[in-house]
């Protein structure tokens, strides 16, 4: 009789207790999902790929982590003001074949539109880190053709060829491309003067250089809202092209010279006073003048007058 009672308890636990989540595990899952949700901003979105497995089911279709990241990039390219929250911070967590199924209502806001969608994530614990296996919404909800969903975004080329800068930025001998996620400008005050914070942007006036090769980390440039990219070719002999970022302001242009493989600056930003030194081209301010050597030309103020000054920079 005792044996029968013991077996009955084990069977009950096996079939009815396996879907329960222990409180500690639930707290960890909730924390992870909140972090994922909070990363859906224009500045944090370039790092969303870190939350996903290498291959996932994304809104009903198999996608790689890279494709998911591209889709998130497209979303913020088209709707820089996009935000999402978990309604009332309420989540329902159940065990699903050893993973965690997290259900919640996602409240989204974009382009003056607000809507709620019944959503879910399937999350697994891999080597102590949580990763997303599936992301989607209830297939029975309305407005599945809304422009924020992958089915719409994938049919619209948000990143036009004009916005892509091609080059071999990781040194593997293959062509990559880079593009810039720019902030949305709210207001522009004192536009005729170079005044810090004269321009205000949603979420801050920072721009992010994104690379098609996700092995290359995004590069964030603060206080930059209008820009242009330049392929500077291989400057330091590592086999990878360096990338130039023009930070364009009403009365100045600053060229940032980045090593794309590690995101480090190779020299101080090259600032040009465009109110005085007008119509200067890249070759006028930047030249490769030898192995691991460049010559840069900046605007400098000497005795109350603005002049162009050149210097040779040796690269490591």
Automatic annotation (TrEMBL):
Please name the SUPFAM superfamilies in this protein's record: Integrin alpha N-terminal domain (SSF69318)
Q: Which domain of life is it from?
A: Bacteria
InterPro entries recorded for this chain?
Integrin_alpha_N
Q: What is this protein called?
A: Uncharacterized protein
Please spell out the taxonomic lineage of the organism that makes this protein. Answer: Bacteria, Pseudomonadati, Bacteroidota, Flavobacteriia, Flavobacteriales
